[in-house]
Amino acid sequence: MKKKCIAIILAAGQGTRMGTKTRKQYLKIAGKPILYYAVEVFDKSELIDEIILVTGAGEIEYVRETIVQEYGFEKISRIVEGGKERYDSVWNALKTIEQSEEDDAIVFIHDGARPFPDEQILERTYEEAVKKGACVAGMPVKDTIKIVDKNRAATETPDRRTLWIVQTPQVFQSRLIIEAYRKMMRSPHENVTDDAMAVERMTGNPVFLVEGSYENIKVTTPEDLKIAEIFAASRNKISR
Ligand SMILES: Nc1ccn([C@@H]2O[C@H](COP(=O)(O)OP(=O)(O)OP(=O)(O)O)[C@@H](O)[C@H]2O)c(=O)n1
Ligand SMILES: C[C@](O)(CO)[C@H](O)COP(=O)(O)O
User: Which of 37, 29, 39, 32 lies closest to 9 in space, CA to CA?
Assistant: First the structure.
């Protein structure tokens, strides 16, 4: 039987590296806000039952009007205020899942600044999370990676065949991710940049990599906007 699927879509970041006045999740690409694109994929997916949107302090009404009502999304059950760091925002959303006692659901955690996931990625990560409890979308790195010291001298060149870039969605059995976050939030947790790290550090459950896509980029710095514009235009053409 299909498990209940809850998506947490994160949009409470500051967009410091983008450096625009309007926070990057609300910048328009091909005529629509960046946040719209990811929400659309989850809202349309037959797998997903519910979406929790996480936004910045004081932005709940703005997001309700400009995203939820403007585009007629139907699965957004809650809009939650985020926190200072990405993990604070995730934890605020997970606490609402814990309160509603969804302990056998599958939780998809996705960056709102990552506009181009697709249905196949949701399906692949769902299957793996049901089987193994924890997985993340990712892709093999295309470049050679060097580890450098504080003088920027290369100290190591890891074997590229062992390296993947990590994306979202990061997908977990609800009990596992809530337990991992609860423990992590009680211990030192600086430099935690993804959800898998909570599971890796706080539980014995391995996290598996599942093929994402090279189109599933995170819009982080201004040059990403140019690439995103091209992908967004082609998505708009397909969904018309
Ligand atoms: N306190 C935070 C920080 C980040 N995010 C979200 O997490 C995702 C990934 O973060 P990133 O791309 O690094 O976004 P920002 O934190 O906004 O960017 P920056 O680090 O440049 O400030 C984004 O969708 C962002 O909105 C969030 O919900 N709450
Ligand atoms: C979770 C993540 O998207 C994986 O690549 C990423 O680590 C989050 O972005 P941040 O810039 O580290 O907050």
Answer: 39
Give CA–CA dist 226/163, Å, rounded. Answer: 26
What is the DSSP pairing of strand 147-148 with strand 154-156? antiparallel
Assigned CATH topology for domain 5-239:
Spore Coat Polysaccharide Biosynthesis Protein SpsA; Chain A (3.90.550)
Whether this model's pTM surpasses 0.95: yes
Q: What is the mean pLDDT of the chain?
A: 96
Token code pair at residue 228: 């995103």
Report which of 87, 13, 81 is spatially closest to residue 52, judged by C-alpha positions: 81
Ligand 1 binding pocket mutation candidate from 111, 166, 189, 190 (most atoms within 8 A of CB) = 111
Residues 6+ apart with CB under 8 A from 126: 5, 47, 106, 108, 171
**pLDDT tens string 164-214:** 999 999 999 999 999 999 999 999 998 999 999 999 999 999 999 999 999
Q: Are 192 and 184 in contact (CB under 8 A)?
A: yes
Nearest Cα residue to 170 out of 130, 225, 210: 210
**What are the tens digits of pLDDT across the range 93-124?**
999 999 988 889 999 999 999 999 999 999 99
Residues found in the chain: 240
CA 12 to chain centre: 12
Ligand 1: residue whose CA is nearest its atom 9: 111
ipTM (interface pTM):
0.98
Contact yes or no for 110/169 (Cβ under 8 A)? yes
Q: Give the ligand whose atoms come closest to the C-alpha of residue 167.
A: 2
